[in-house]
Task: structure prediction
Amino acid sequence: MVLNILDKAKRKEELSIEEIVELLSITDADELNALYDTAYFIKESYVGKVAYFRGLIECSNLCIKDCYYCGIRRSNKNVERFQMDEEEIFKEALWAYEAEYGSCVIQSGERQDEAYISMIERVVKRISEATKGELGITLSLGEQTEEVYKRWRDAGAHRYLLRIETTNPKLFAKIHPEDHSMEVRKECLAALRRTGYQVGTGVMMGLPGQTMEDLAKDILFLKDIDIDMVGMGPYIPHSDTPMGLEVPAYTDKQKKQALTLGLKMIAVTRIVLRDINIAAATALQALEYTGREQGLKCGANVIMPNLTVTELRPKYQLYNDKPCIDENSAMCRGCLSGRIKGIGEEVGFNERGDSQHYQNRIKD
Ligand code: SAH
Ligand code: SF4
Result:
């Protein structure tokens, strides 16, 4: 049955929710390999064997939100808070440009005050001007008003990542405080689309109580809203959070299971959505050192090497076991590109690597 579904996918036929659930539920090793191979085949035919780098700048761990799973949530008093200034962010972006990364991602906890909004606006403009618009600028700065998204877009940002986290309303309500709303997230995603961004969203997989059916619906949601990019990753408990307190740290077996679920989600998302960009989340590497390369082999085509200065890395821990916190950006570049060549792929140096899906949709 699994092989029939995979053949159907190769013939570009639509899969039903039941078929998607069946793929996500695979446990047999041969069937798993067949799933990954099909996803890779579809990736190759739609987006090629090129991995694009997005240098990740984690510019602040200040956050007004209190998501129950996240290590930098507002109520975590054990975090030493930091905020990079404009100059520091600019320098890291320029490093990415000079390292031929093609794009950068500016990410932080959420802030909605004017001082922050205008600082981001200025720095995006500065990066855009200094790199003659050649360096792709992705923002991942949470929920904002449409007007703010527009200001940042006008300054030169052109992609935005905002995960929906889960599309199951009951689960969403369980992992967030009452004043965090899924409807607001959906409205933000719609506003981003209206404002002209390439829009990315995604979910966490392996949340307590989450079912394969939930995950299948998540994938269909991504398709429904016609997303350009997906960034999703395994949920990893953080010991200083309400959700992390409830469970002990993952055992090796649980890590392996979480990694496999992450890889299956990437593979099935590639099979169903085909021409989008899919990031191999850093959280995969927290579960196994080569987790991100395995993500590429299962259908992902984007990697986000960390550019954050080594001293600040331990302060931006969304989950436990964050990898490479004692390394610097140059080490990440060398070590990652070698590993990518090792799996037979090229790195798209100096290319912005816009999503094929986005390029097709603006042509229409
Ligand atoms: N504040 C912004 C960007 C930083 S958080 C925002 O929330 O969009 C980026 C992502 O980290 C979140 O979307 C969430 O999916 C992920 N994340 C947070 N805590 C995590 C955890 N414990 N395990 C795995 N991913 C986590
Ligand atoms: Fe803040 Fe994002 Fe963490 Fe939620 S997930 S607490 S918004 S940094």
